[in-house]
Amino acid sequence: MTSEAPTRAYRRLSVEERRSQLLGAALSLFAHRAPEEVSLDDVAEAAGVSRPLVYRYFPGGKQQLYEAALRSAAEELQKCFDEPRDGPLLPRLSRALDRYLAFVDQHDAGFSALLQGGSVAETSRTTAIVDGVRRAAAEHILGHLGAEEPGARLRMTVRMWITAVEAASLIWLDEDKQPPVGELRDWLVEQFVACLVATAGRDAQTAAVVRDALALESAEGPAGALVRGVLPVVGGAGHLL
Amino acid sequence: MTSEAPTRAYRRLSVEERRSQLLGAALSLFAHRAPEEVSLDDVAEAAGVSRPLVYRYFPGGKQQLYEAALRSAAEELQKCFDEPRDGPLLPRLSRALDRYLAFVDQHDAGFSALLQGGSVAETSRTTAIVDGVRRAAAEHILGHLGAEEPGARLRMTVRMWITAVEAASLIWLDEDKQPPVGELRDWLVEQFVACLVATAGRDAQTAAVVRDALALESAEGPAGALVRGVLPVVGGAGHLL
């Protein structure tokens, strides 16, 4: 009887359960290795099933499995930016970045392989999935900024910052996850404020957004720390006025 | 006699001249179309030669020609950042950005296809060429900042800004080259200052670099315009001190 148990367990999964079990196994492999370094045998072994069974669920083989895993990771990533629109803006952004950076930490090698390009598994479809995450992140942030019909300047600033965050994440992974994640998060929030403030200098809509956001921040929060850090640096620049 | 003239001209080119003629033809085709949309016949026709002749010079076919064209474009792009280290920093950066944005303008579709990824012509080699340009740009800028042995914070800030400039270039191409190029350039310079100032709030080396740079700027230059634009926006944030 005991020798039959694994077989019974093997058979008891529904199609949907089996599919998501295979996807979970694939996702954890693709998370820590470049797609080139993952074989269908690896996925079968990690899921404790046979290679033909993997093919039955994913007849397109590794590329189909990779794209399905990527789509599932993209959904998870998009959830990072789900944050209630209550309270001051910067703590909201900090919480979203905490979740995003935890995702980067957990999917390190897969995240790098995906964003650094040049992977054999990269196609116009995988690129579209990644672009979808970027677009969703931009819409979330613009929503939090509370700008109705955000103009070209504000949109461009947010999209530039998102790209800069991606670059910072890749560098962070490359530099053995230094600085500590909390420090990186605070710094990225400060970069966000800086980019918005610079744009506000030449765009009325962004200026209104920044004024409204700063009014709700406190001296004890991230905005206070930024202002106190920056003042001594620019304090000597009176000749520019 | 007149009918023989093209044949004589055809033969007179040296190997090196012919190679660079083919490369020039390829480059101008790849500049305005995605690699998928350029055939070897197109290159042969643009260069006024036969398809077998193109193959004689580039036996690896279109992929080899694409990579050679990319390498030649990368060299051109790297020259954009060559700028004497005289006078205030921001006008130097403005001149480099003028050349960079002129390159983006001239190679619009090719530039987008290359950086947006998912192209069938994208390989680890093409990715390495693009990364080489990014690294060279970062070294140029760090050199202009005059920091000896730039630390992790300063390097990361410069690399984040370079990625943000790439993102802005792609958005600019996507939005029919709006805003006008001079406005985009000034804005990117201001974003550079803002990112550095934010980092200066938590990094002593960056703070020293920013102080030295601002001391040489004038009220009439880009730094003056930025300060005057930003002050009214942050002027009401005294509660953060």
UniProtKB/TrEMBL annotation, chains A, B:
- Is Disulfide bond tagged as a keyword? no
Reading the lineage from the top rank, the first entry is Bacteria
- Using the record's annotation, list all stretches that form the HTH tetR-type domain: 16-76
Keywords on record: DNA-binding, Transcription, Transcription regulation
Keyword Nucleus assigned to the entry: answer is no
Q: Which residues bind DNA?
A: 39-58
A Pfam family of this chain = TetR_N
Protein name per the record: TetR/AcrR family transcriptional regulator
User: Species name for this entry?
Assistant: Streptomyces caeni
